[in-house]
Structure formats: C-alpha cells, structure tokens
Amino acid sequence: MNDYLKILRYIAINGLWVGTLYFGYFEGVEGAANIAYFMGWVLAISGTLVYIAMAIDEEEFISRVSKREMSSPIPLWFDVSFDIVMVSIFVWFGHYVLGVFLVIALTAGYNMRVKLKEHVFDILKKKPEEAV
Question: Of residues 65 and 30, which shows the higher confidence score?
C-alpha cells in the first residue's frame, strides 16, 4: 500500500473517531458516543493484545509484522499527540478504565513502531555484509 493510501486511511479512521467523539460527547448524540466508546475499546483490546504478544516473544512478533507492514507515513509526534487528545477526552468524560487500556495499547503501538524501525535498520546493516 502506498503512502497516499495510508494517509487517506489514517484520516478516514481518525476523522470518524473525532466526529463520533465530538457529536457524542459535546453535542449529546448518544449513538455517536456509543460508536466512539466502541471504537475506543476495539483499539484498547487490540493494542493490549499486541502488548502481550510483544511481551511473550518480541523478536518473533516484530519479524512477522515487518514482513507485511513498514513504517507509517504519519509523523510519530502527530500520531502520539492525536492519541493523547483522544485518551484525554475519554478520561474527561469518566471512562477511566478505557483510558488506562488505551494508554497500554498506545504504548504498545509506539514501541512497535520503534522496534520495527530498529528491525529494518538491522536488516539494512546486515545486507552489505551478506553481499561480501
């Protein structure tokens, strides 16, 4: 998948999340709040599973993920800032447990991005040695 499609996918998913948070919590539309809450829990559970998988066997997990996914075109500072705002909104409106699990999930995502980058650099360092 090229970078433009990754950026478009990021904007679509996070735009939907922002929209449901805004209309759900600030405009009082209950259905939108439910969708935002559901999306938050899906991210929290999937990220927690990533965290557990990395804790069990980090090297194997990173090598498998690196075969199908490379780095994100979204700057890490922007992604982390966006996620902090989303977690803050959930915590502001009293979803503390979700906030804790989102922080775990987002930490796993951040660590995965860092480890993927390190893994790619390690592969690039080894390639010239193998050619000799």
Answer: 30
CA 7 to chain centre: 14
Q: What is the DSSP letter of 12?
A: H
Closest CA to 35 of 45, 25, 47, 49: 25
> Sorting pLDDT into bands at 50, 70 and 90, what band is 18?
very high
Going from N- to C-terminal start, the domains of the chain cover 36-131
Output the pTM of the full model.
Answer: 0.78
Helix segments in the chain, DSSP class H: 3-21, 30-56, 58-68, 76-92, 96-131
Q: CA 61 to CA 65: how far, in whole Å? A: 6
The residue to which tokens 């922080």 are assigned = 103
Q: Phi, psi (5° rounding) for residue 121?
A: -65, -40
- Extract the tokens encoding 111: 């660590």
